[in-house]
Amino acid sequence: xxxxxxxxxxxxxxxxxxxxxxxxxxxxxxxxxxxxxxxxxxxxxxxxxxxxxxxxxxxxxxxxxxxxxxxxxxxxxxxxxxxxxxxxxxxxxxxxxxxxxxxxxxxxxxxxxxxxxxxxxxxxxxxxxxxxxxxx
Length: 136
Description:
With 136 residues, this protein is an all-alpha fold. It has seven helices and no strands.
């Protein structure tokens, strides 16, 4: 019994991450504001107020808006998103809605929103993959 107690104490004091593993997913996810950097908090807020009506909070197009195609921007590279938003803002790329939207964003807003959408992770499922056993 003493050995078990000593082992537990050893693990607790020498492996501090052992205690952190008890946190639930709700305490560690992006839904908890305190878990996000200031840049991500600002990007998330800007995405909620400006971008999510068409692109959704997760970067998946939520509506068609007034255009034929609203692209999914989930997990795009930050530099790519920043360049596109900058090009819309400057007028290098002309688009009825995006030129106006990008014009409302500061350079810092563009960086923060791009950071938010670039951090979204996706899982790819191959429907042609034959599984021996269904996964849970």
